[in-house]
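Q: Convert this sequence to structure tokens.
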Amino acid sequence: MIFNKSTTNSKAHPTPEQTPYQLMGGETAVRALANRFYDIMETAPEAKALYAIHPLPLDAIRQKFFEFLSGWLGGPALFEEKYGHPRLRARHMPFTVNEQLRDEWMFCMNKALDEVVEHKVLREGIRQSIGQLASHMINC
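A:
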């Protein structure tokens, strides 16, 4: 995901030199996004079915999601260093991922993005890209 500097908005935009990871605030912000996502999933009635398919406790999956987001957003490739290429679709194949689960996942992610990512253009770019990725996980 690459954005150019806008003449109408003087705020920085992601570029190959300044990644979304850096613009968000690095490790602290990316970890906050991952944790907020799971906090919402645990408590929101709108994510009941999604929460039900996750192994408890969520500590390990929170960490893996942070590691994935770190590399996906242009920061350190923590997930790849530990587990190899994410191969997200293949990793999700053992689970039935339908439109309802995608929508529940996106509900949690959208709320987390709104709360954690202050930069509007960055937030919307991440929302669009991760939405495409979430739709790609549908396997039934």
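Helices lie at 20-24, 26-43, 48-52, 59-72, 78-83, 88-92, 99-116, 120-136.
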